[in-house]
Amino acid sequence: MSKAKKWNMIVNVAKCNNCYNCFVGAKDEYVGNEYKGYTAPQPLHGHQWIDIKRAEGGQWPMVEAQFRPQMCNHCDDAPCMKVAKNGAITKRADGIVIIDPVKSKGQKEIVDACPYNSVFWNEELEIPQAWPFDAHLLDNGWDKTKAETCCPTDVFKSVKVSDAEMLRIADQEELKTLEAKGGGKPRVYYKNSDVFDYAFLGGTVIKVNNGIEDCVEGVQVTASKDGAVIGSAVTDGFGDFKIQKLTKSLGSVELKIERDGEVIKTRTADVQESIYIGCITI
Question: Other CB atoms closer than 10 Å to residue 251's CB: what's the count?
Fold first, then answer.
């Protein structure tokens, strides 16, 4: 494993509030501006070099939403490089992938090769283009990308470390990359991307006294699959529980509702995506 320091991007999805400052910052930096050796100008419309994806999970009244900025991953095993001709794409020693704005002319297959849909076609100039990790700024002394300087909630963090150190950071902070079909080995890492990556199972525990429904706090709800516990939660003051980080398309799970160590009810639920199963009366 190389000891050379390389650029990586960490994106904390939990901090993104969909303000689009990063998108606008990229437009401000590249629309109408040419950086020779790095990129030709980005078109005003049609390109989303930093694109905000949205995910929603659950049903009313228990719904979660997240926003995830996505961009060129600067892959170590970049699929775009495998189809590029005439040295149109280079992988720098610092990990950054550059699509040469001159050598790539006419090579639309570079766009189609990206499994992340992060390479765009400039119809006017007939070239493929993608976010170049703001390499022209980093090469001129910047220690942050434009997206970082524009973001008011500290979503982005670029780090230049060895591959071994990046793997340690990824393990310590539970970071994930977008591993698309066909691979790529991305250098953009995501943190707290739960709504995109997992499902939750939520519900509300109530009891009925003299025809009046009351919320039940402090009840333990445990989910099991094929006899193995896969998650649990305790109801809050509103009787709500939410079992997090379940695998999507999990299928049928068994729920055990306990109070004071005693099982008072069981039921099943079908988990495909995040789901709110309604009220459970005990």
Answer: 11
Task: Count CA atoms within 13 Å of residue 106 on its CB side.
Answer: 3
161 beta partners:
6
- pLDDT tens digits, residue range 89-105? 999 999 999 999 999 99
Q: Which residue has the tokens 């379940």?
A: 246
CA atoms of 80 and 83, how far apart (whole Å): 6
Residue with tokens 């022209």: 136
Q: What are phi and psi of 241, to 5 degrees?
A: -135, 155
Judge contact between 55 and 65, C-beta under 8 A. yes
> The dihedral of CA 25, 30, 35, 36: what is its sign?
positive
**What domains can you pick out in the chain, each with its CATH number?**
6-58+67-193 (3.30.70.20), 198-281 (2.60.40.10)
| C-alpha R_g of the chain | 24
Of the candidates 37, 41, 47, 11, the residue with the CA atom closest to the CA atom of residue 29: 41
- The residue type of 150 is C
Residues of the chain where predicted confidence (pLDDT) is lower than 50:
none
Give the whole-angstrom CA distance, residue 277 versus residue 181.
Answer: 33
The rounded percent of the chain whose pLDDT value lies above 90 is 95
Gap between the Cα atoms of 90 and 171, Å rounded: 28
- Residue whose pair of structure tokens reads 């190389």 in the numeric block: 2
The per-residue pLDDT for range 51-84, each reduced to its tens digit, is: 999 999 999 999 999 999 999 999 999 999 999 9
**H or E element at residue 192:** none
Q: Which of 15, 23, 2 is nearest to 70 (CA)?
A: 23
